[in-house]
């Protein structure tokens, strides 16, 4: 059976560390990898909007000398005619060597994986998981901090629907001595199942607050997120909560000098553009890292060693 990446815990800590090492080697020596996936095809099946995830996957495969096919909206595929996800993926598995798939329904990539023999990568399933963003985040932390242990990280914003947060909390719960600070409005707290699985069951300490400014001075990493408009049940709640946190240069005055500010992007209002000039803003570097870690992941899942 093909090796998939559906949930970040499908990879062991050793495998994640290995992917990071390969990604860092790709950054140093891109030419070494430029033909590694010659004659291989990646399909990107995006049933939900995306800029970075889809294009970084495509750019990653092109950077490895492979080619790409796929669709970026469900309406341009036979989904519009009523085809099931299973049949769509079964079909694409007859053409492509590896599939990256994003879907608004939680669990869709898990179900799809039953219908084809090529590796399936979960590129985001509803408000559930987003393992390749997590790999991007881990590579970014490694490059910014030089380590993946012994730090305090604050997650701020929509921790309820933010799938990147769920996967990153899960991943970091396997590293040593990470202190989790969960910053959100009452209504957007980290789901109980994530807290149970990743933190409580392992006895990992965490704190929860609604107040970003009071905790900023203690953070080594601040992971900002967008309020996930598309997952709200009514517009009124979204409008009330959307501007709960807006990071500005003034709010960073008491932050550590070596703080790293991450955001999976897209941002709406939660980080003022003026923060981009702060050397602690790592989110544009994070975007770049997303391509390299996906190159490493494609190589791994296709079983290609360079
Ligand atoms: C995130 C996502 O799709 O979950 N974006 C991304 O993949 N970089 C975050 C978001 O949409 O807010």
List the helices and strands and how they pair.
Elements: H1 13-28, E1 41-46, H2 52-63, E2 67-71, H3 85-92, E3 98-103, H4 108-112, E4 120-125, H5 131-145, E5 151-156, H6 163-172, E6 178-183, H7 192-199, E7 206-209, H8 212-215, E8 221-224, H9 235-241, E9 260-262, H10 283-302
Parallel strand pairs: 1-2, 1-3, 3-4, 5-6, 5-8, 6-7, 8-9
Bound molecules: N-carbamoyl-L-aspartate.
Rg result: 19 Å
Largest sheet: 5 strands, parallel
Q: Can you tell me the overall shape?
A: globular
Bound small-molecule species? N-carbamoyl-L-aspartate
Structure explained in plain terms:
By secondary structure, the chain is an alpha/beta fold. It contains ten helices and nine strands. The strands form two sheets. It has a five-stranded parallel beta sheet with strand order 7-6-5-8-9, covered by helices on one side. A four-stranded parallel beta sheet has the order 2-1-3-4. β8, α9 and β9 form a beta-alpha-beta unit. α6 packs parallel to α7. It is globular. Bound molecules: N-carbamoyl-L-aspartate. N-carbamoyl-L-aspartate (NCD) binds next to α2 and α6.
Task: Write a compact overview of the structure shown.
This protein is of the alpha/beta class. It contains ten helices and nine strands.
List keywords for this structure.
binds N-carbamoyl-L-aspartate, 5-stranded parallel sheet, 4-stranded parallel sheet, alpha/beta, 306 residues, 9 strands, 10 helices
């Amino acid at each position: 059976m093909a090796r998939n990446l559906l949930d970040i815990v499908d990879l062991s800590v050793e495998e994640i560390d290995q992917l990071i090492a390969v990604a860092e080697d790709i950054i140093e020596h891109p030419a070494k990898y430029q033909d590694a996936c010659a004659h291989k095809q990646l399909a990107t099946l995006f049933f939900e909007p995306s800029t970075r995830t889809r294009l970084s996957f495509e750019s990653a495969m092109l950077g490895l000398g492979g080619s790409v096919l796929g669709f970026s909206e469900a309406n341009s595929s036979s989904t519009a005619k009523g085809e099931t996800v299973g049949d769509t993926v079964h079909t694409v598995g007859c053409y492509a060597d590896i599939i990256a798939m994003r879907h608004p329904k939680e669990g869709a990539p898990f179900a799809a994986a039953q219908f084809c023999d090529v590796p399936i990568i979960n590129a985001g399933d509803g408000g559930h998981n987003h393992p390749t963003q997590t790999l991007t985040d881990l590579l970014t932390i490694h490059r910014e901090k030089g380590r993946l242990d012994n730090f305090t990280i604050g997650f701020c914003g929509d921790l309820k629907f933010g799938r990147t947060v769920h996967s990153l909390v899960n991943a970091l719960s396997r590293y040593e001595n990470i202190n989790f600070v969960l910053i959100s409005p009452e209504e957007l707290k980290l789901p109980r199942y994530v807290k149970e699985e990743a933190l409580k069951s392992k006895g990992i300490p965490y704190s929860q607050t609604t107040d970003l400014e009071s905790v900023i001075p203690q953070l080594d990493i601040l992971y900002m997120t967008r309020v996930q408009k598309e997952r709200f049940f009514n517009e009124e709640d979204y409008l009330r909560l959307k501007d709960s946190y807006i990071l500005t240069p003034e709010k960073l005055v008491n932050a550590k000098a070596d703080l790293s500010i991450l955001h999976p992007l897209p941002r709406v209002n939660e980080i003022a553009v003026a923060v981009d000039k702060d050397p602690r803003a790592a989110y544009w570097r994070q975007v770049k890292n997303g391509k390299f870690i996906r190159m490493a992941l494609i190589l791994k899942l296709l079983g290609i060693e360079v």
